Amino acid sequence: xxxxxxxxxxxxxxxxxxxxxxxxxxxxxxxxxxxxxxxxxxxxxxxxxxxxxxxxxxxxxxxxxxxxxxxxxxxxxxxxxxxxxxxxxxxxxxxxxxxxxxxxxxxxxxxxxxxxxxxxxxxxxxxxxxxxxxxxxxxxxxxxxxxxxxxxxxxxxxxxxxxxxxxxxxxxxxxxxxxxxxxxxxxxxxxxxxxxxxxxxxxxxxxxxxxxxxxxxxxxxxxxxxxxxxxxxxxxxxxxxxxxxxxxxxxxxxxxxxxxxxxxxxxxxxx
Length: 271
Ligand code: DGL
Hints:
By secondary structure, the protein is α/β, with parallel strands linked by helices. 45% of the residues lie in helices and 16% in strands. The chain contains eleven helices and ten strands. Strands 4-3-1-2-9-10 form a six-stranded parallel beta sheet. Helix 1 (19-28) links the parallel strand 1 and strand 2. Helix 1 (19-28) crosses helix 10 (216-226), helix 2 (50-67) packs across helix 3 and helix 8 packs across helix 9. D-glutamic acid binds next to helix 3.
């Protein structure tokens, strides 16, 4: 034992979607204590007004920090990043915060057809942050590529409830609508952290080769860069993770079993 305090990383999402980022963080930061907070009581976020979400996320993070010291916060939620990351950084200048955004730039670099699809929540796609990202990526891209968006309404909620059959049907409906608009789409950005949990359903819905772009590993690399002591080689045993939910503990418990094959003891936010 080194005797030094274990690095604590907070991982936040509206619900269970952040587990797709948690997986990548666990692999990249084996020496860190991961503490997950799911706002299941308010999920899904994606069809709520930005102002209300900003107030909600900033209040939750404030209360979280009051009961648990965090060395880094990962907003494992595109929607929370889009509406609240600036306010959070302003309120917590001492806390490094890593957000997640639809990976439009890597998708434009990967596409061969020049046609990129983005599925995300309505709140993410409507945000000024996403619009600015989209314009910046297209301004720098050669060859006249295009980016086609689809708000995948209902999908985060279906995944939240563990309804895989409905999730499959919604992936099919949303991807077919995008392909009807732009049949040459060969690269699809998964712009909501819930969506990589049903990766196979996207692939099945595409009916042709399509590359799925999920920035979880890039987020984990960024976190590791900010916390070099928590990466591979720290030599410590894995600290067991903490799980908190604002809603009924069973939905997060079921999700860790379903998506991570991991049992979890779920607490309330302030316990
Ligand atoms: N997983 C979140 C995201 O990345 C939010 C989905 C939702 O709650 O609607 O956008």
